[in-house]
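Narrative of accomplishments. A recurring question from our advisory board has been how the design workflow behaves on a single, concrete structure rather than in aggregate. To address it, we present the structure tokens for one chain from the evaluation set, followed by the sequence designed for it. No filtering or post-editing was applied between the two.
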């Protein structure tokens, strides 16, 4: 993953947006990672996976309750 400083990301924002469509871009501030810029479609995929995992955990909890555990 390519990483940029926050000031470089600010200065090159248009280019960073284009790069983020192809691969995530890490953003550092004061030498420490603070953010990752990624495409909207990659974010949507992550959110869908997160929702599926959450729903699976809820289903497991309901099954435990119904089984008296």
């Amino acid at each position: 993953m390519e990483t940029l400083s926050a000031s470089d990301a600010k200065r090159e924002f248009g280019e960073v947006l284009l790069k983020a469509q192809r691969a995530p871009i890490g953003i550092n501030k004061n030498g420490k990672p603070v953010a990752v810029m990624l495409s909207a479609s990659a974010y949507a995929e992550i959110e869908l996976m997160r929702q599926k995992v959450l729903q699976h955990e809820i289903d497991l909890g309901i099954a435990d309750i119904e089984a008296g555990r």
